[in-house]
Amino acid sequence: MASPVKTLTTLAEEKTLESSFVRDEDERPKVAYNEFSDEIPVISIAGIDEVDGRRGEICNKIVEACENWGIFQIVDHGVDPKLVSKMTLLAKEFFAMPPEEKLRFDMSGGKKGGFIVSSHLQGESVRDWREMVTYFSYPIKERDYKRWPDTPKEWRAVTEEYSEKVMNLACKLLEVLSEAMGLERDALTKACVDMDQKVVINYYPKCPQPDLTLGLKRHTDPGTITLLLQDHVGGLQATNDNGKTWITVQPIQGAFVVNLGDHGHYLSNGRFKNADHQAVVNSNYSRLSIATFQNPAPNATVYPLKIREGEKPVLEEPITFAEMYRRKMSKDLELARMKKLAKEKQLQDIENAKKLETKPLKEILA
Ligand code: OGA
Ligand code: NI
């Protein structure tokens, strides 16, 4: 009999965690998935277009959050809650389908969009405890609907509408951030040349041993900004002291978590932080999140838009976004390689020490 196809939903039934998901101790969760913090500001953006009204106040709050964390949550954002709940419901239906159905959209081997377990990135040594579906929604002319899931039936129309509404909201936020940097309103969208959008739907099944693993390992998003929708379970964590302490972001129904990415960080010359974050899992509930990544075009130039007096540029020279991404990925791979080498050396040292212990003294001294 052919062995059943394994997705995470099948592995989640097992009593112990398969070893490919077990992380080194220093990478494991330090704070519980449901120990919520209120440190990340929740900002109502009602009235964001009223130039003589709330706009200034909203702008100040966003700037403060970007300087401290690179993360904030927005409510009263105008995206129809019905659309949001439809999107969430259909996504849940997708992940509840049997493995063969989901694997019809298998994106392994570098396909642009579809379904995959853990990650589409190459060279990951430990796997993430998640399943994901991703589709590339902008620029519209590059959409490849063959790589978009076609079940549940209404999903495609809903995802199209969702993409458009989130794109509009993201552009509004980029205007505020441009003004905050003392630039024209359209400075950031212009710097993106032709804005790219990618939607990633993350599904984190219940996990038998959540303390040993992560749903999504620590990272910063590469792009300009990310708008993340999360359900009520909780699991998104952030650090603003390089991993010494972590907080779990409080889930708020209908809110978007906005993360500043590397591109946004560089364009602000480092004034705005790129959100340093990860997702943890738990053994009580599965969790769903929908991340919409707003990225510049691959050939867009990455360089600070304004360098304030007394500041040094955070980049030596202007590079393209594609090059920025390439450097980020190769740095990550290099760090993983160094870590692996260090671990192997440590194991070898222990082995050698053991050998030494069991040798008779006269052999050691000889
Ligand atoms: C991401 C991400 C966090 C989450 O998809 O880049 O950071 O809570 N997701 O799912
Ligand atoms: Ni992220």
Q: What descriptive keywords fit this protein?
A:
single chain; 366 residues; alpha+beta; Jelly Rolls; 15 strands; binds N-oxalylglycine; binds nickel (II) ion
Brief characterization of the structure:
Its cofactor is L-ascorbate. The longest helix has 38 residues, at 321-358.
Inertia-based shape: globular
The CATH superfamily label reads B-lactam Antibiotic, Isopenicillin N Synthase, Chain
The CATH topology comes to Jelly Rolls
* SS-based class: alpha+beta
CATH domain class name = Mainly Beta
Tell me the CATH architecture. Answer: Sandwich
For the residues shown, what is the average pLDDT?
Answer: 93
As a whole number of angstroms, the C-alpha radius of gyration is 22 Å
End-to-end separation in angstroms reads: 60 Å
Number of strands: 15
What's the number of domains? 1
Portion of residues in helices? 25-40%
Unreliable spans:
none
**Chain oligomer state:** single chain
Strand order of the largest sheet: 2-3-11-8-13-6-5-4
